[in-house]
Design a protein that fits this description.
Distance between the termini: 31 Å
Number of helices: 23
Strand content: under 5%
Radius of gyration: 24 Å
Helix content: over 70%
């Protein structure tokens, strides 16, 4: 058995922990020891993790072979475990999650920041402008004509908010969207995995700090989460194209419509589209021809079952291109008002003013940057004035912070930075949930994770926060809940034995 891959993972873990520790030291300095705080605990965790990563690189092959064998046995158990039958506890958790979310929103909405110099103020201002122009139907006409020039806030949430461009009403609209997303998602997961997993998903969502804070403000994330919930549930219904004789036309068209609505709501949904394209294209490659050598003995002759898996691990190009055509065509139809406006006014179908900030070292007014030249000119100027070392440093430092933000986003209310430690407790269940899932959606989730981390790692000098990663929060918490259920099944089975 080749142990190179786990050693590489251990080395990467040690390096990432070392970079995180360096960032903590730079931020806190001697206060880490002189004034113990949560940052001190986080620093200690980084030291321990870096030490374990170094040890993982140096231990003998015998250790890794034994550990990988045990891990493979656990993966087999988790992936072959059937979803538990309906249990009264799952229904209770699902009902309780609705009550919890309702109570949380009642207490959280009055404490939200005022709309002054933030995204809430921008959305309310645009909604007021649209209302004065004649409302949502007038907005559609202005988009097709190229007369609506706002290139930051996308138009769908603005159009809905224009019916009542009021701060308090806007917050309630977001809260109702959050409740709708919670209901749709939890019930959909119940049909997919059983009501125990669905109930757990609803509960962790109802107390998740990032979810509750963003769905309690007059911003577009609440509406975006509704579309993300529908998109993920549709993906779970999609058959494995490697085994399906027909293209699932209706599901693909539905996915294109939903992702189009998501992009009309928020520009970051473009990463969801890109992830879907990469996901479909990834099935044109026979990964089993070279990946198994990282984890299996390359000298051993493959078995008949492994050879069969290798032969069925790709999808015909005709199926891939047909699926992408349906997805992109339905997306284009739904998103056509904004696509046409962008082409007519800015020369790019996916234009967004914040794209200019990708080539800045700090936040600047994006509308002022648009007047200074094209996006290509801004990119060339940035590359000419920054060395390769500076570019790599920006991305690596951003990745460290994105991992921190991602793990912290898994934590519950009412904790602040202490949510990080609850997130760390959730990570093992996330990994188990991913190992348990055999649907192709697992690959899509991993692609989305990498895209969002890489994109917003680069964006770190401009802005950072959980709102950028919120589209991947829903599938993440599903895998966390699934991991909890699988661990519970494992413990019950061992106790019965």
């Amino acid at each position: 058995m080749n142990t190179l891959f786990p050693r590489l993972v251990s080395g990467a873990l040690a390096g990432l922990s070392g970079l995180a520790l360096w960032e903590i030291i730079q931020l806190k300095g001697a206060a880490l020891i002189q004034q113990p705080s949560l940052a001190s605990v986080a620093g200690a965790c980084c030291v321990i993790t870096a030490f374990l990563g170094i040890v993982g690189c140096l231990v003998s092959d015998r250790f890794w072979i034994k550990l990988l064998d045990q891990g493979r046995n656990l993966q087999t158990f988790f992936s072959q475990s059937t979803n538990p039958a309906d249990h009264w506890l799952g229904s209770l958790l699902l009902s309780f999650s609705i009550i919890v979310y309702f109570v949380v929103m009642i207490n959280l909405i009055p404490e939200q920041p005022t709309p002054q110099g933030n995204d809430q103020a921008a959305f309310l201002s645009q909604a007021q402008t649209v209302q004065e122009a004649g409302g949502p139907m007038a907005l559609v006409r202005l988009l097709f004509q190229g007369d609506y020039l706002e290139a930051n806030q996308h138009p769908l949430y603005v159009a809905v908010l224009s019916y009542f461009p009021d701060y308090e009403t806007g917050k309630r609209l977001s809260a109702m969207s959050g409740l709708l997303a919670l209901l749709i998602f939890s019930i959909g997961i119940t049909f997919q995995y059983g009501n125990l997993t669905g109930g757990l998903t609803g509960l962790v969502l109802s107390v998740n700090a990032a979810y509750c804070h963003l769905t309690g403000r007059a911003v577009c994330e609440g509406m975006l989460l509704v579309f993300v919930a529908v998109l993920w549930l549709t993906v779970l219904r999609l058959p494995d194209l490697r085994q399906s004789p027909k293209i699932p036309y209706r599901l693909l068209i539905g996915m294109g419509i939903v992702v189009g609505l998501a992009w009309l709501t928020k520009g970051t949904a473009l990463l969801l589209i890109l992830g879907l394209i990469i996901w479909f294209c990834s099935y044109a490659v026979n990964w089993n021809r070279f990946i198994p050598s990282l984890t299996r003995n390359t000298i051993r002759t493959p078995s008949e079952s492994e050879m069969a898996l290798t032969n069925t691990s790709t999808v015909p190009l005709k199926t891939i291109f047909g699926s992408l055509a349906l997805l992109l065509a339905s997306f284009t139809v739904i998103a056509s008002p904004l696509l046409i406006r962008n082409v007519r006014v800015y020369g790019s179908p996916t234009f967004n003013a914040n794209s200019y900030l990708l080539f800045q070292d700090e936040f600047s007014d994006p509308h002022a940057l648009i007047k200074q030249g094209s996006l290509g000119a801004a990119a060339r100027t940035y590359l000419q004035t920054h060395s390769v070392r500076e570019i790599v440093k920006r991305e690596v430092k951003g990745l460290v912070w994105q991992v921190f933000i991602f793990v912290r986003s898994l934590g519950p209310l009412p904790f602040g930075e202490g949510r990080l430690f609850f997130g760390l407790l959730a990570v093992p269940f996330l990994i188990i949930g991913l190992l348990s899932e055999t649907h192709p959606a697992r690959r899509l989730y991993c692609i989305w994770i990498m895209l969002f981390w890489l994109a917003f790692a680069w964006y770190l000098p401009i802005a950072a926060g959980e709102r950028f990663l919120i589209p991947i929060l829903l599938p993440t918490l599903v895998f966390v809940s699934l991991g909890m259920v699988r661990v519970g099944q494992f413990l019950v089975q061992r106790r019965a034995a």
